[in-house]
Write a structure and sequence with these properties.
single chain, about 110 residues, mainly alpha, 5 helices, rod-shaped
Length: about 110
């Protein structure tokens, strides 16, 4: 057995780790760009890695957490921005009642 055999194994392991990490990071970017909800399970499935491996990668875990927080805050902003306030709903209701009364008056004149 060659004396540098352990070095070849270590080099190969480093290279394989780097390739796997690159694949996971690329997949994570694709998920985020597609607007999908990023989870460890989904990333593991799409990248072809184990969930336990992802948990051993602090940079991936941090990025997943950032994307989840960003999505949660974006969802909150979207929900609050599109939710009508009580005052605006009351105003719309008052305008609708006013319009109904106008139409009733027109109908009464036409009869």
């Amino acid at each position: 057995m060659p004396a540098d055999h352990p070095q070849h194994l270590a080099d190969h392991a480093r290279q394989r780790h780097h390739q796997t990490l690159q694949r996971a990071q690329h997949t994570l970017t694709e998920l985020a760009d597609a607007g999908e909800q990023v989870t460890v399970a989904l990333l593991a499935k799409r990248a072809g890695v184990s969930r336990s491996w992802i948990y051993t990668q602090p940079a991936l875990r941090d990025r997943i957490r950032q994307l989840q927080q960003h999505r949660a805050s974006a969802d909150f902003v979207r929900d609050t921005a599109t939710r009508a306030t009580g005052d605006s709903l009351r105003q719309r209701l008052a305008l609708a009642h006013e319009r109904i009364n106008q139409l009733r008056a027109e109908n009464k004149q036409l009869s």
